[in-house]
Amino acid sequence: MLKVIKEVYLPLYSTKSNEFEPGEKSGINQWNASGRPRDYDEAYIPVPSWIHNKIQGFFPNNKIDLFTLELPNGTLLNAKMCQDGQKAIMTDPNSDLGKWLLRDVLDAKEKALIDRAHLVKKGIDSVKITKLSHTKYKIEPAILGAFESFKKLY
């Protein structure tokens, strides 16, 4: 019998970093990436590939299907899976997600790179995504270590 998974945890740091550091030009620091002028609120949430493999069907399996992300305050954001392999959640506009994460949750100033020390200070290094339907999800901050604990289940 297939177990229905209602929630996943996603890291706000690079899973390639042994020190759990966010990328300097990716994820929550996407605003710092080169290539074009960027809004200081640009950010995305990385989705490790194993989540798509182990928890199939939790997220849309393409870059076309839109879904709604509900913030803890009830605000609804338009979102979709982006990048090769659907390895990122982004909103339209992309700055909506970053404004919530960077300014509201992490209380970061514009142009401030988020590092592990900042995440530890705030007690948050991941987000919890709850699937409400095929087109609606709820997102909320998660405590330090939540993603690593979740990963151990799989």
Proportion of residues in extended strands = 15-25%
Rg from alpha-carbon coordinates: 15 Å
Strand adjacency order, main sheet: 1-6-7-3-4-5-2
CATH class: Mainly Beta
Number of strands: 7
Mean pLDDT: 94
Distance between the termini: 17 Å
Per DSSP, the total helix count is 4
Any idea what the shape is? Answer: globular
Helix and strand composition category:
alpha+beta
What does this structure look like?
- The chain has helices spanning 49-54, 94-105, 116-122, 146-152, and strands spanning 7-11, 45-46, 67-70, 76-82, 88-91, 124-131, 136-143.
- It is of the alpha+beta class.
- It has a seven-stranded mixed β-sheet with strand order 1-6-7-3-4-5-2.
Q: What is the secondary structure topology, with strand pairs?
A:
Layout lengths: L6 E5 L33 E2 L2 H6 L12 E4 L5 E7 L5 E4 L2 H12 L10 H7 L1 E8 L4 E8 L2 H7 L2
Main features:
single chain, 154 residues, 7-stranded mixed beta sheet, 4 helices, At1g16640 B3 domain, globular, alpha+beta
